Amino acid sequence: MFDIDVHQQQKGDGMSAVYILVMILALIGMIVCSKKQKANPAMQPVGFVLFVVVIISAGLLLKEMNVFGTSSGPLQSEIRFYVSQGSKTGDYLKSVAPGKKVLLIVENATDQNENLKKLADALKENYGGDVVIDAPAVEGVEEGTPIYYAMKAKDFDELVEKHADAGIVVSTIGLPEDMKNLKFTRLSEDKRPLLFLLGLPNGAFTGLYQAIQNGVINGVIVPNPKANYEETAPSDPVKAFDMRYVLVTKANAEEYKSSLAI
């Protein structure tokens, strides 16, 4: 795999050099044509052709440098890794609780970035049920401060109560620091929706392992301790997920206990 990557990198560097050389030669030709077109009008169309060559070469060079964000670039690779969490979550929830309404909790329900939309779409596609996206109404948040830092138990509870018909709650912003005050966790198992944490944006927190063991939290996605962050994400979301993340449930919580705060 390493040899293939090196070969592809060398090939890319070679093509970039070719595009640069063509641009330089075309620019020199344009300068020559510009100087001679007064004496020889035939040089004017030649200069225009060389100008087109410069434009095409510049475009190819920018594409080779991944300025346009091709699917093989590092940014697109990280997006595929990120979105694979939505695919995995959808598949898992469909296997344990199919056909329910899903509440996907996000940072901002009205101003979602494109990556989050792709994550939500992957969740919807793989779960196959009704997925509604919403965010907690947190008061007094200073500008630039993420909601998950300021979110309190009452904010989380109010959002869950707002969507009382949701059988599954998936949070992309973790849980409030005062998780112990959540009314949600004190509901009987038959009355509370299944709770799944799609990542831990504010880090692991005290009580997570026990909450998983007690069934209050059905599952959580954590970084794979064996992940190689220099690897490129494959197009297959299942393979991409396994390379970067781990889905922790009651069945394997003991194995990944070190990834959870005790």
Can you walk me through this structure?
The chain has helices spanning 2-36, 43-64, 74-96, 114-127, 147-150, 153-162, 208-213, 237-244, and strands at 102-105, 131-134, 168-171, 194-197, 219-223, 245-248. It has 262 residues and is of the alpha/beta class. Helix 3 runs parallel beside helix 4. The two termini are 38 Å apart. The relative contact order is 0.10. The model is unreliable at 1-12 (pLDDT under 50).
Key phrases:
262 residues; alpha/beta; 6-stranded mixed β-sheet; 47% helix; elongated
The average pLDDT is: 83
The count of helical stretches stands at 8
Shape: elongated
How many DSSP E strands? 6
The percentage of residues in β strands lies in 5-15%
Distance between the termini: 38 Å
Gyration radius over CA:
26 Å
Order of helices and strands: HHHEHEHHEEHEHE
Q: Helix coverage percent of residues?
A: 40-55%
Q: Unreliable runs, pLDDT <50, ≥5 residues? A: 1-12
Largest sheet: 6 strands, mixed
- What strand line-up does the widest sheet have? 2-1-3-4-5-6
Question: In short, what is this structure?
Answer:
The chain has 262 residues and is α/β, with parallel strands linked by helices.
